[in-house]
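Model: You mentioned two targets. I'll fold them one after the other.
Researcher: Yes, keep them separate.
Model: Target one:
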Amino acid sequence: MLQLSQRYEPYVVRALETLWGKSRERAGGTTNLLMAHLLDTAAAAEVLWDSFLACSVQAALDELAGGPGRGRRLFAWLCGIHDCGKATPTHQRLWAEGAESVRRSGLTWVERAAVAGARQQKRWRHDWAGGLIARDVLAEAGWAAEQVDWVWPLVAGHHGAFPTLRDVQEPSHAKGQLRGRGEWRRVQQAALEVFTREVGFGVLGEVEPVAAPSRALQLQLSGLVVMADWIASDERFFVGLDDLQLVSLDASRERAATAWTALGLHSGWGDLAVPGPETFKERYGYAPRPLQDMAVEAARRMDGPGLQVIEAPMGEGKTEAAQAVAELLASRFGADGVFVGMPTQATSDPMFTRTRRWVGAIDGHLASRVVLLHGKRAFNQEWKNLLGSDGSSSGEAFGGVDEFGLGDDPYGVGPQACGATERQAPAEWFLGPKRGLLAPFVVGTVDQLLYAATRTRHVMLRMAGLAGKVVILDEVHACDVYMSQFLREALRWLGQAGVPVVVLSATLAPAQRQALVESYVTGAVSREEMSVEVPAAAGYPCVTTACVSDAGLPQVLVQSTDSWRKDLQVAVRIVSESLPGVRSSREDRERLQGEADARVGELLTRELVDGGTALVIRNSVARAQSLYEELRRRFAHHEVRLLHARFTVARRADLTEDSLRLLGPNTPRPQGGRLIVVATQLAEQSFDVDADVLVTDLAPVDLLLQRVGRLHRHESTWRPERLRTPRVFVTGLDPREGREPAFPYASEMIYGRHLLMRTATVLPDAEEGWSIPGMVPGLVEKVYGADASLLPEAWREAGEVACREQEDRDRARADNARTFLLTPQGEHERRTLVGLHYGGSTAGSDEGALQAAVRDGEESVEVVLVAQESEGAIFRTLAGRALSVNGDVAPDLLDEVLGSVVRLPSKFTEPALKLRPLPGWLGHSWLGKCRALVLDASHRAQLGDATVTYDEEFGFRQLQ
């Protein structure tokens, strides 16, 4: 930058020598000039290009820039200009020392007007100012309006939200004193020109892209801009430079290379070779089964990135099929990593292990790059071992690993806004706030993907994290009407971004399958609506593949094959129970529930007379606890287990592991031994067990079939003679003579009467059964179809009422979800990100608020359980270990205390919200955000008007 005096007036040169980008307090003790920070960010972007971006993203940027090899420089420029708005009074006035230096250089402003403008619009800061400057300067440089219109929002939105064009106009009360007038305008133009030449362009006109990117690519680019800015803002590696003579792109490159190495950042598997026919056996040790072979070959024939839906029963090898397809699609279309989305935290943990094993088989050193992304990962032993420590972190709040609640510091003058990350972690930078999806390989709950479809701050980081990956989504049938709105919105964006997606499900209703395909394809062609014909599968298991041809036409292929196992002939019997009416007394409810439990107890005593294993699934925790109490009286203590969501997280993890071990396919079964696991819906998804007999409450048919999938999974498992025919006993309904059946209140609240009634009609007669999995598609299609004649004549009037109730409820829930969607209905064909965060409800930024946005339901609260024998006594853990009078937690007790978290039923939300941390927890990075529920010596507490209790056998309960 030694030739500036030959190009610019002295006041311009003085300004560039003075304008600050980071204050001394944020730049290692030395002011960092604005020009230095712009170039630092451009250099960080170059490193991202060379060592992080997937080939698919590079190819898209090359296309924007005019051909192969041109995208890198454009990308560096786009990232670097993000803070051009700091060349304004609105930023320079914020740090007294820097403001004085700027005034001495000759640039001034009227502080009274600037204050008035800031009061009028508090959000008008350097990001919005930068958007306005970029818009004006690029237009003056001759850029086409189409190109200007997508670039300026990247600048204006780099602090997490995209404003409208009206927003970025300078507040009228400022009278030009926030953006700056006169000489300020010349300095702003010069800053962009100098930066542009330093990056390698001649003039601003040369930078103009030859094409406009899709909105999805714009959103991903925006996230990468933020990532580059964050790296370049790390004062450990980018110590301030206050001498313009020392500022250059070469100097910034040295700093960026040092930062990249020190931060341990890395890409994924890189340029993968296309897997051959032998690869599957090399990865998994056996030849592909028919479904797996069909899925891989279908992916091999795809003309471009697309969607593949794999439907097969449990035990068919869907996970291995998805992994093989993902590897193939990544190699063909330039993806560099994978995101695996699971329905729950509990199902994410075993998938974390399987994903590490898979990527490690591709390249041994990749296994350490897999990140587990959910709020309870600190309790996953494999994750803790991977970190090489206890997995805790002073900067990771227990409420969520990826929260947005840390204060945004748009001025760059406050303390570092990023908390400390997890100790000794591989790819430690990726574990900081907001960054989880940016890691190359991620396993987490599907919520992490759904968050990318919400109107939230920094949503661009989530979309940037999905760029260049293959997305695998398991158990998508678990997404209800509400969550499905976010899933479809996410698929639209992924389709437009060219991100391959593999969806797994035991089975889908035809309407669900249609919606998934249409969402992805509609996004891929950037349309608001599009009708796509999805043929019905001729058999089961089946694979549906959808992509868009070079001509922009949807291509859908549906194939089916035989299962690798013979169909199971499953006997299905109804165990009726009398149910209380609306006006029944508590005594009547308890009596009827006791009678129902006794009937199940008698049934299991009879079925397990020669030994064997039984899985019992109840639709509510209360029903599970009640039945468990009955079974304890009939069977030995070691023969009955209880598993539900109202145990503490540590206890629940132990019980889950214990159940999986005892009912697992590889556990020897002692002849004559008996085991009963009573569970809730936790046993419905990715619960790898092999039971001899199943007792289950009625649920919608697809979920009921999921439960049946836990039965007789392995021919090698020893079973008593009487249990060698798989039996299912359906509880939770009262078949009433001459009218529709009755269902427990909890079942109706969870699933609705409509689907329960239709499922009840397809239950086989006493002498018949189901052939599984052969009958699965037909059963699902019947229940989820619209044929009113499925119901017996005597049920139809009630069925019509239930159907209308369900339609109304579904419509209301879908409408409620749409208020949080990233793109409002009717705006999917917009060309830029302008105003993306405006026009509807905005979801909160922390993990709890995000979960509330994507998972419809009554709010519930997590609390930490501690004990105190009497008022004023020391607090203790549930196991009786001493804390202190104030509840202070010694380091060796932290895991035990955090393991005592339990989620309360929603009816206790109001009194639970009044609970506070113990005095000794205040200021602690994890416990400081936790509510404490203090139990007495008997482990009881008063919560609102109710008396509640907790014990290791039943979990959390309300006492009558």
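Model: Target two:
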Amino acid sequence: MCCSPTGRSTPASRPRPDLPETPPPPDPAKVAAKRPKRGRLKVFLGMSPGVGKTYEMLRAARRRKAEGGDVVVGVVETHGRRETESLLRGMEVMPRRPIDYKGRALMEFDIDAALARKPGLLLVDEYAHSNVPGSRHPKRWQDVEEILSAGIDVWTTLNVQHLESLSDVVLRITGVRQREAVPDSALSGADDIEVVDITPDELRKRLAEGKVYVPETARLASENFFKVENLTALREMALRRAAQTIDDQLLATLRERGVEGPWAAGERILVLIGGDAIAASLVRAGRRKSDMMMDAPWTVAHVERPSRPVSGPESAARLSQAFMLAEQLGGRTLVLTGDDVVKAVMDHAHRNNITQIVIGKGRDSRISELLGRSLAAGLLRSARGVAIHIVTEPGGAPVERLVKEAPATARSLHWRGYAVGAGFIGAATALALVLDRAFERVDLGVVYLSAVLAAGVLFGLRPALAAATVAFLTYNFLFLEPRYTFLIGSPTDILTLVVFWAVASVTGWLAGRVRDQARNAQRRASAVSALLAASQALAGANDPLGAARVLAEQTAAAAGARTIVLLPRDGDITPVAGAPDLEELGAAAMAAARWAWERGEPAGHGTGTLPQTSWTFRPLQGVRSRSGVAGIEADALAPGSDEERLALALLEQGAVALERAQLAGDAVETETLRRTDRFRGALMNSVSHDLRTPLSTVLGAATTLIDYGSTLKPGVRRDLLLSIREEAERLSRYVGDLLDMTRLEGGALNVRTDWTDVRDVLNAAAERVSRRLGARRLTRDFPARLSMVSLDHGLLEQALVNILENAIAFSPDGSVIELAAYEDRGSVVISIEDEGKGIPTAELERVFDKFRRMEEQPDRSKGAGLGLAIAKGFVEAMNGRIAAASPILDDRGTRILISLPKSIATHPDLL
């Protein structure tokens, strides 16, 4: 069986993101011609080993070679099958590359040789194969990707059980876990798929004849993996996956080419629901339709009409329950927006290749049916290539009330509109009576029309219609002859009253519609503002605890109820934030929260799990994994209400924010561990030599003095004693450096600042290094007057000693080291210059790194490479800055500058 799509989606044909307006783009054909061509991939897909994938691939390759094609066998596994081996005769077979693994030479596919040979078509068997450790890529499908990128066509073979998304399903069916897997995207990216298919009975016959495995292995395989029921299930999966992959590729290709759908390549179902009693039945009908169409993708959608009033609580509850049912049955949910329902539905259907639409039909009025204004009639007129399925409303079925009866306050507000409308008519009547007595000819209908308009603007359509009816009757009774009776004396008055009532009704309806639209717009604007505020607040959270606090506060404000957020701690979830306060949860509530965390499903009040609790818990699902659980007080959110939608949107944002904060924390922790490991490795490497060398010198000199002290000349004894002292001092300096670096790394540095004259610190540091100058000369250049600076005398002195010792270590004998100080408006600057060979420009930025030595084979006697790193840490701890410049004169010398900030800037005239 061969299934081949019309073509693959290349980078040239993928839609690009919107860009700023630019000149007309170049011709796509010319762009594609300039870009390197990618090879085509063909996959021979089978349900299991032994169906003949490799055999069929070699047969097709021999036909291609006979047609003059450049065909090379990169790697083919014959498994000792003679008929397969016979197909390799006369074919160019590439030698394999030996790779040493645990003392054995294993033969693997030579990808470098394939790239160098660059044939027109390369055969690479076993797409899911895992390469030997030490290969360029861990998986063979990655080798194939590199070959395709080089413009070489590849044919390969694959068993369906090796697809990553099917590994769990295959494990449940066969009881065998597949160790080798290929990501589904690797198969989806194939240009051609050929399904090599035989019946399970025929495969078992081949197995028994020894054409798949040796007899003993074949017997065990037929009793385990190669059972008829296993092979049947795998065969169905192979056929389904091939059809689905080809359908997805066709859909992407037609979209990229701008071909308007639907395209009859595979079934896709759209179920339209409203807030009526038939919504759940429609969802179940969509699920059954999907089952009948080989598990076709199906979506449940509801169309919101911005121009219409908000649905009542019972309708919203039905919608919410229908959406929950759809998700439980494996469908997707979607909310469309548009005043024209038919257009919104058909636009979505054309964009998403919907081929089946399921709708419900209630008791439409006769007038709507005659005028063709029902939803079913509109879809039937607009549908092109889409099947419409109509599910009728069951008669006589009891309708369950999904929400509680409206509270007394809501009922009072409902009747208030009618009462105020009647009051407006009463006020209009009083004004009309005054005008009727004061003037002879007055159009009193305008007065009543104003009252009806006011009722419509303030309270909507129904109070406006009621006010129009009362106005009609009152105007007729009081102001039309014969007065004080509902009789109409003149035929023209009848027309006047009808026109008045019609105008009043239309005006009230339009005013009510504008009012509803304004309220809807205000509600949506409030929701967007709340989401924006929550997004900004969550973006500012630096850790999971801060993000949890923000999420609890924002959700509590949106829901108008108590909210709690639980995060994972030590294998369990723990309440960490709440609004308005963090409350302790009872045993039942914690059980519901754990259920939501472990199963990824809502639990608690209003759900099917532990509904007796007073909280509703929802998992916070991030992009990669669950990041926590959020609980909202029971009965706070009406199902399907705008408040519920807003709260759920906030929880989704909060889940992503929590995940981001957790990832950021993990990244910081990982970086800290990496730096710590690097520091520990460098430390142990340094300690192994820098501690051992002076200790060995001290031990050797001391042993010599003890054993031969009486026979040694005084000069020799003095040299040995000086050596002991020098190495002990070196060891002391090294241990001090390690302790200082430990304080810096551990954040335990205690800075004690005081007003200090920098010249005193410079002189003290110079005295400490005077004995180690040797033949070098240290000069000092200080001004007569220098501003006092707030700093830690001890830290600055140690930093200067480290820098001076570094200058001494890398300066030749007879050179000059200059120690200088000066000031500008905002800081006091210390300069230390030497006449050494200098620092390469590329190393200047890293000269202050720990264990950094400038020599390729460093002299350990010059230090462990910690001095400048410690100096930098001490200076920055006092809010100072340190930098290095090199070379400074005749390609030699180094200058270290330390800038210490002043508390108050000095006036230029005082410098």
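Researcher: Noted. Anything on target two?
Model: DSSP finds 27 helices and 26 strands in the chain.
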